[in-house]
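User: Can you predict the 3D structure for this chain?
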Amino acid sequence: MSSEKSASLPKLLIVEDDAGLQAQLKWSYEDFEVLVAGDRASALALLRAEAPDVVTLDLGLPPDPDGTSEGFAVLDEIMALKPDTKVIVASGHGARESALQAIAHGAYDFYQKPVDIDALGLIVRRALQLHKLEEENRRLAARVDKEGKVLGRLITGAPEMMKVARTIERVANTKVSVMLLGASGTGKELLARGLHEASDRAGRAFVAINCAAIPENLLESELFGHEKGAFTGAIKTTEGKIEQAAGGTLFLDEVGDIPLQLQVKLLRFLQERVIERIGSRSSIPVDTRIVCATHQNLEAMIVEGRFREDLYYRLAEIVVRIPSLAERPGDATLLAKSFLHRFAKEMNPSVRGFAADALIAIDNWGWPGNVRELENRVKRAVIMADEKLVHAADLDLAAPDEQALQALNLKGAREQADRKVIRHALARSEGNISSTAKMLGISRPTLYDLLKQYDLHG
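Assistant: Here is the predicted structure, written as structure tokens:
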């Protein structure tokens, strides 16, 4: 095997003192770079040098081949040095108790001796897939704080929004124009600000303007500025938002509301990177990145002649579609808890959390107003709550029926809707497989099988 090919393969460390079994196992894994150790010292040396993804470990190692003390010492040191390693221990001579004890020490799974190569292969490959999944989750979690915030501000645990965040992070340090498409209240400005803060422009200004909130006759001045005396009331020269955001980012919310005449002027800026203030004939070069958003169907507006096609393609070099809150399993609860904590601290410190009926009502509601609606309902509930816990009635939501209350039991909920419960648990644990499995009351291998069955990895 070439060194280049070997470097691209996942690493499997076999810790086994039987030379014959070593060879048998080594040649059974062509899709791995196989490392072999026969004792504790060599196993730990390979662990430090090679950082294998998966380890198969015989607990009976010299100098205690008939016992388990040396094997457990290796297992404990692996867990201390590299706790994300998936260790599969051998259970020989019917020593199931030792195998279960190893699981308690952090092992991923166990296999019975004499070895069934095919059965062990399935366990090893399943362990590798879980290792990859957890590694991706850790990579994402490194960008998520304890409240579930990504991109510095956006609170989410849903895979759908994680994908959005990853896309934004990938384009943050490029010069492309980004178009955010999503319903009102989905967090478009937070994402735009997150893009700015993840970019090399983070030290400069982030300026936001809602194009729908400014009258047409004032929007041009807001964007491009004006010279003193350019029109009645122009008592001094004023920079527009594009100039104010020089070196930084300008966020144009509801860009579909820009009138056609002004669209031409915005297109010229995007093409030439110069502006002219109202009342001036001088061109001013400005380095401002444009990020825009809308809830409107711009492609339909182009067909109707209400939005310029050439401007659309200048603004939408990268299009990011933001899911509604109803399409982000678990996020309503995650956001509600964050809002409650903030508002209780500010307005009603006696409020401590949500009652069970409130959490179920939050999960079941469709949130047509998205995050903005949720924030408003939680704020009102915190102010009005008479008890330490906020109930569904405080949120002005219908209380769940008895059947829904019984579904708080995870086993019962799984029987009713496995996919929904697993996705909610994943979201609440921010994608952490171990925490999700504990929350659901199942083993990690069982959860991984369910993730695969319901195609919930991505």
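Residues 1-5, 402-416 have pLDDT under 50 and may be disordered. The longest strand covers residues 86-91.
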